[in-house]
Amino acid sequence: xxxxxxxxxxxxxxxxxxxxxxxxxxxxxxxxxxxxxxxxxxxxxxxxxxxxxxxxxxxxxxxxxxxxxxxxxxxxxxxxxxxxxxxxxxxxxxxxxxxxxxxxxxxxxxxxxxxxxxxxxxxxxxxxxxxxxxxxxxxxxxxxxxxxxxxxxxxxxxxxxxxxxxxxxxxxxxxxxxxxxxxxxxxxxxxxxxxxxxxxxxxxxxxxxxxxxxxxxxxxxxxxxxxxxxxxxxxxxxxxxxxxxxxxxxxxxxxxxxxxxxxxxxxxxxxxxxxxxxxxxxxxxxxxxx
Length: 290
What we know:
Elements: E1 39-43, H1 75-82, E2 90-92, H2 103-112, E3 117-121, H3 124-127, H4 138-155, E4 160-163, H5 169-176, H6 180-188, H7 193-196, H8 204-231, E5 235-237, H9 241-244, H10 262-273
Helix pairs in contact: 2-4, 4-8
C-alpha cells in the first residue's frame, strides 16, 4: 500500500516574490545562440516517468523532460536534435513522492552537475495529502520554489530554467470517477485522498473539498508564474498549459490510473516545449492532437 502517494498526472492568489539579482544579467534573446551542454529534470514522479513503462517503477527514459525514448520526444531530445551540443548530458534528478520541500536539494545537485538547462514540475504532492490541513501553504510553496531558483542563479548564472504548471487534480477525478478500476486503485492505494477520496460522492462537503484542493493547485501555479517572472527572461513558465489541458484516461497509466503513461508524457513535452523553443532559434512545435 502506498502511504505517500507519488505525484499525479493532474497539478489564485498571486504573490509577489523577490529573487536575488544575478551578478551578470542573462538575456534570453542575446545575439549569441544558446547552446546548453547539460540539462537536468527536477521534480516528482511525473518528471521521473513513474509508471510510464512498468509496474510502480520510475521510467526515466519516458520522461517528458530528460527522457531519451524517441516516442516521447522530450525536451532533451528536441534540444539535442536542434543543437547536438547537449549530446548525452541529460540527468534526471526528479524523485517520486517529492514535494516543494525537496526542490532546493535537487537544485543543488543540478548545480553540482553544471546544468545549463533545468526543468521543474513540482507541487501536486503538496496538495495530494492525507487531509486538507496538511496541504502546503501557498506562501511556503512559493518561498521554496524561489529559494531553489536563487540557488540556480547563484550557482549557474548563465543557465536557463523552464517551469511547468501543476496538472489539474480535479480533471483526473472527472475522467476517472466513473471507471471502477480507477476507483479501485485510488481506494486501495489511498491515492491523493484530498481529491480522490469518495470519488462517487455528490455530497456538498465532498464537492466543496474538491473545489478547495483545485483552488490550492491554482494558487500554486499562480505562485510559480510570479516566481518565474521575477527571475527574469532566463526563466519561462508554461502559462498553465499543463494545468489547462483536458487530458483523458488514454493519457493515464493503467498501472495506477494516476500517472501519465508514455502518451501522457509525450503530451506534456508537446504542450510545454513551445515556451522555450525560441531559445534555440528554431521552432519545434508539433500540431495539436487529441
